[in-house]
Amino acid sequence: MGTLVVGAECYDLVATVGKGTFGEVAQGRRRSTGEVVAIKILKKKRYHGRVVKKELKLLQALRGVDTEESHIVRFLESFADGACTYLVFELLEQNLRDFQKKNNFLPLPVRHIRTITVQLLAALLKLKELSIIHADLKPENIMLVDHARYPFHVKLVDFGSACILTEVRHVKQPYIQTRFYRAPEILLGLPFCEKVDVWSLGCVMAELHLGWPLYPGINEYDQVRYICSTLGLPRGELLCAGWKTCSFFQRVPHPTALAEHCDLRGMVALLKTMLTWDSQERITPSAALEHPFISLQQVKSSFEATQYYQLCHKDLRASRKDASAVQLFPGTEEGAFIPASQRSIQEATTQMDGLSLAEPSGRLSIAGQKLGRESGSASHLIRWW
């Protein structure tokens, strides 16, 4: 492929081992030692100089780290010419994405997933100590070192998107993380920290087990819908705090009536267990105390952010002479975003659905459908009752 001359040192480029938006990664051989390395070639026309400086700054910070113990790729040196910047790293075998592809994306045994996870957690722990967010943890950036000799020994690579926590903590509109692995706080526009990498790692673990991405959204709206389908809806206070919330969710003006109706249905359910012909089937006092109506679990699961739930909670605490611990949560006024799963809403009322979609040109309700990938259009909004 060619030769790179750096002062008295020369690197013979052997083959291209990877390509990206801003350049490529080549396998090279250092003539003086015969050492085989990976050379990341960043084309200056496509790669902003400030971004290069930031990546170099982070790599220099990682130079004093024990790369074997922390499972982070070993950075060797950097140099540049008029056209490109070159970053030299130890050569690793293949990334997890290529490994999955070679194995037809078959699910990985749980024991191997644990082996990979513990190493990546060690990497994230070291990054946290240095106040570094990797911000692009995905299978393509997890490298197998030498699978034949050291099965599932991995290292974290590619710090091109990484950032210093103190420098981005107050950035209002960060665009970080590959979409499939993007944390909810980034999607909703909430304050974030190094835990965005923990979210990404969780997505990678699930993907290794499933053989396909856990949340394969085609856009951010679709991504949020996928997350809601498995985790349920975000708490009301999170929705109120996110500056991007309105891109995905619609504010409902009067949730109190629905919350009260849900509570009434819970009471009816309890009554049915108390008023039975056969005393053997009748609920006991201890079981009744754990009933969702008494414990407020039914209302909490659907309407935790409403004023109605907060008042019910306050009444219960006051009846137990523990009113000092009562505190209303912010964002509970009428018109707040109300979290609710479709299941609990259908239990709360037979007149409204758990999910409706609103478009600029009109309103469309979809009955009895699960949250899922019905439409990739970001013009739809998930409605919370």
From TrEMBL:
* Domain Protein kinase: from-to ranges: 11-294
Residues annotated as binding ATP are 40
The entry's protein name is: Protein kinase domain-containing protein
Q: Which UniProt keywords apply?
A: ATP-binding, Kinase, Nucleotide-binding, Serine/threonine-protein kinase, Transferase
- Family per record: Belongs to the protein kinase superfamily.
GO cellular component annotations, sorted alphabetically?
cytoplasm; nucleus
User: Which SMART domains does the annotation name?
Assistant: S_TKc
User: Matching Pfam families, A to Z?
Assistant: Pkinase (PF00069)
Whether Transferase counts among this entry's keywords is yes
Coiled-coil intervals, chain numbering: none
The keyword Kinase is assigned to this record: yes
